[in-house]
Amino acid sequence: MRLAGNTILVTGGGSGIGAGLAAALHRAGNQVVIAGRRQDALESVARRHPGMAYLPLDQSDAGAVRGFADEVVRRHPRLNVLINNAGIMRTEDLRAPDPDVIGDVISTNLLGPLLLTAHLLPALRRRPSAAVVNVTSSLAFVPKAGLPTYCATKAAMHSYTESLRFQLRDSSIRVIEIPPPRVYTDATAGDDYGVGVEGFVRDVVSLLASRPEADEVVVDAATLLRFAERRGDYQKVYAAVNYEESKGTQ
C-alpha cells in the first residue's frame, strides 16, 4: 500500500486508533475521510486537520451502512482505501449473558465492516490501486475471557480478511490486516501488553512505509499474542492474559 496520494476512509475516526491513523495519513499527503457515530468527535478531529472530511455513520445499522457507502462514493469518487477500524468493546459475564450486548458487539464489530466492505468493493475495484485495511486485535489470537464476544468478532474478522485477500488476489485491491495490542489513549500509559496511540500509529506507518507489500502489520507490542501459537507458548500466554479473571473465580 502506498502511503501518499490516496483517498482514504477511516471508520471510528473520531477517537483512539482511528483518529491517530487518520491524522498520520492526512499528514502523509492523503485525502482522509473519517466516519463514526459521534458527529461532535468527528468535527473536533477534522478541525484539527484542515482539509480532512467527515461523515457520520452508525455501523451497527445495516441500512445506514448501505446509504453511507453510496454517499461517501458520491462525495469522494476517488476513494481507493477503506480502513475498517470502528469497533466497540464490552465486558461480559457469560454465566448471566446479556443478549443486547452480544448483538451490539457483533453488529458493530463484524456485520458492520463486512457490509461496508461489500458495498464499497465495486468502487474500489474501479481504482488502479486500492486497499482494504482491517484493524482486528491481538486478542483475536489469544482471547481475553472477560471480552468473549469482542474477541470472537476480532477472530472472525481475521478469518474474513484471509478469505478476502485470497479472493481478491488477482485484483488491484490489497488486503491488509493490522492486529493492535492493547492501545492506551493516555500517552504516558503502557505495559508489556500495550502501547500508547501515538506510538502505535508511528510504528504502523513506519512498517507500512518499509514494507509496502505486507499483508499484515504487527507492531512489536502485538507479537506476544499474535504469534503465541506459532511459538508454542499459547497456554502460557493465555494464562497470563487471563490472570486477573482466574483470580476472581478462586
Automatic annotation (TrEMBL):
A Pfam family that the UniProt record links to this protein? adh_short
InterPro entries per the UniProt record, alphabetical = KR_dom, NAD(P)-bd_dom_sf, Sc_DH/Rdtase_CS, SDR_fam
Q: Which UniProt keywords are listed?
A: Oxidoreductase
Q: Name one GO cellular component term.
A: membrane
The record, for SMART domains, names:
PKS_KR
UniProt signal peptide? none
Q: Which GO terms describe its molecular function?
A: oxidoreductase activity
Domain Ketoreductase: from-to ranges: 6-184
At the top level, the lineage of the source is Bacteria
- Similarity comment: Belongs to the short-chain dehydrogenases/reductases (SDR) family.
Q: What is this protein called?
A: SDR family NAD(P)-dependent oxidoreductase
What organism does the record attribute this protein to? Mycolicibacterium hodleri
